[in-house]
Amino acid sequence: MKKLLFQLDTDPLPSVFDTVVAYDGGADHVIGYGGVTPETVGALVEGTIFTRSPKDKKYTAIFVGGSNLADGQALVKAIQKKFFADFRVSVMLDSNGSNTTAAAAVANLTKHGSVSGKKAVVLGGTGPVGQRASVMLTQEGAEVVLTSRRMERAEAACRLMQERFGVTITPAVCAFDQPEIGEASIRGVLDGAHIVLSTAAAGAHLLEERHWKDSPSIEMMLDANAVPPLGVSGIEMMDRAKERHGKLCFGAIGFGALKIALHRACIAWLFERNDQRFDAEEIYALAKSLA
């Protein structure tokens, strides 16, 4: 029986990255659909749940991707509303690498030190990876500050995570590229910070090396950006628990090996049963077992 993965993307074009990893994770065929919405997903889901016998339904699965996490969450909710009794298939949510990248990042950090009771700053945290990393750090006991260039965006992201996970995350402004507030905002959010993650969009530069190298409190630094210019000066993309200025540093490729392994493992596990849901909680638990 062929393992069929239906890649439902909220963006106009399905992600090539997700398609490649799906094949490497064991899918025999990956069928991609772009521009999928809660209003249009119904017939696609029905096609997955009514076509195979109960014992063979596990060989069909759904992957939800796209660049917008809120849209991905809404799509997963609409998909699950179509399920009933044993007419269901396993589903994975990973909008823009939100769950796998965040889980790999936080699992690497917690492997090398406790985050409980410590201040963790997630810079550029309003995107999918930043939001989910903030949640995972909070659930590990950290006091998380999520930053954006605009307070309203930071507040909106924190509300979304509170609604979904019941966690409290503190919003803040940090704007390196705004001269009138840049330096002061950086000093404010980094004051007393123990852990700093840079999770902004590719190519967004958020910190200079001078901002963090002499900090007496920072213990670990992580930059999730692999596209030049990197998010944090002074960290190399291949860093994997590399000590720099007395801090353990992680670059995007350095912790990315776990992200790829995790993504592939999740795809493989989708085909073990037909009733699984892989979201932040499940993917992070698997990341910790692989780290």
What is the tally of beta strands? 12
Overall mean pLDDT? 95
Major sheet size, sense and barrel closure:
7 strands, mixed
The count of helical stretches stands at: 10
CATH class type of the largest domain: Alpha Beta
Global shape: elongated
Determine the fraction of residues in helical runs and give it as a percent range: 25-40%
Whole-number total of structural domains: 2
Which residue ranges are poorly predicted, with pLDDT under 50 across at least 5 consecutive positions? none
SSE topology:
Blueprint: E1 4-9, H1 16-24, E2 29-33, H2 42-49, E3 60-65, H3 69-81, E4 90-93, H4 98-112, E5 119-123, H5 128-139, E6 143-148, H6 151-165, E7 170-173, H7 182-190, E8 195-198, H8 209-212, E9 220-223, E10 240-244, E11 247-250, H9 252-270, E12 277-278, H10 280-290
Parallel strand pairs: 1-2, 1-3, 3-4, 4-12, 5-6, 5-8, 6-7, 8-9, 9-11
Antiparallel strand pairs: 10-11
Helix pairs in contact: 1-9, 4-5, 4-9, 4-10, 9-10
Model description:
It contains 10 helices and 12 strands. It has 291 residues and is of the alpha/beta class. The chain folds into 2 domains: 4-93, Rossmann fold (3-Layer(aba) Sandwich), CATH 3.40.50.10280; 99-255, NAD(P)-binding Rossmann-like Domain (Rossmann fold, 3-Layer(aba) Sandwich). The strands form 2 sheets. Strands 7-6-5-8-9-11-10 form a 7-stranded mixed β-sheet, with helices on both faces. Strand 8, helix 8 and strand 9 (220-223) form a beta-alpha-beta unit. The longest helix has 19 residues, at 252-270. The two termini are 32 Å apart. The model has no long low-confidence stretch (mean pLDDT 95).
